[in-house]
Amino acid sequence: MSELERQIDELAEILRTGPRIAVLTGAGISAESGIPTFRGKDGLWREFRAEELATPQAFFGNPGLVWQWYDWRRGIIGAKEPHAGHYVLARWERHFPDFVLITQNVDGFHRRAGSRNVLELHGNIWEIRCTREGTIAENTECPFREIPPHCPSCGALLRPNVVWFGESLPSETLEEATAASATCEVMFVIGTSAYVQPAASLPVIAAERGAKVVEINPEPTPLSSTADFSFQAKAGEILPLIDERLLAGRTGT
Fold this sequence. Notes:
Elements: H1 3-15, E1 21-25, H2 27-31, H3 50-53, H4 56-61, H5 63-78, H6 84-95, E2 99-103, H7 109-113, E3 118-120, E4 123-130, E5 136-138, E6 158-162, H8 171-183, E7 186-190, H9 201-208, E8 212-216, E9 229-231, H10 235-251
Parallel strand pairs: 1-2, 1-7, 2-3, 7-8, 8-9
Antiparallel strand pairs: 4-5, 4-6
């Protein structure tokens, strides 16, 4: 038996006990579906870096330019599909009685794959928010008929319902994510660098409370050396293997 098989077997045994599970996902899990990473070289658009466009200052200075960028991003995301890893997590939500999925991604892939109990730390690119009234609505129009779009109710500018540089994460969502991390028995950390705060602190909270930490990431991160299980591979490959072993144990094969 290989070391990988041994780790998967050991993890599957833990999962068969029906533990409380929290999952934290980052840009890496979406990159497997072909979504450019936010800060990577593929995130460059018209010679602008994401950090130059994803700010309140950029939006109110040139809302048309910022919305063109988001329209472009929505077009890329809309043409891609969730992968096998997304679907495994959606199935696990239905199987485990206490399962919370926390994501740093704004693409909505987890919901498209069927996950329902999702905490979107950075918002959702398929939602728009009125800059005057604060109302939030789902919007899948792509491309937009009007750029920049305006609120049909009051006429004010609409903005993507995402967290920009210089803005705080939604406090209620962060509180729920922190609580889930503090009470889980197993925490999966998938496709995230473990650098960006406050999300990077969530696995630390889980570990301090005695949870088993499972990292899945193609590259090593600051978390790799302390995680109980560290799989340096793609989520779309490893999660189905874990799920297959878990299913085999349930059926007794």
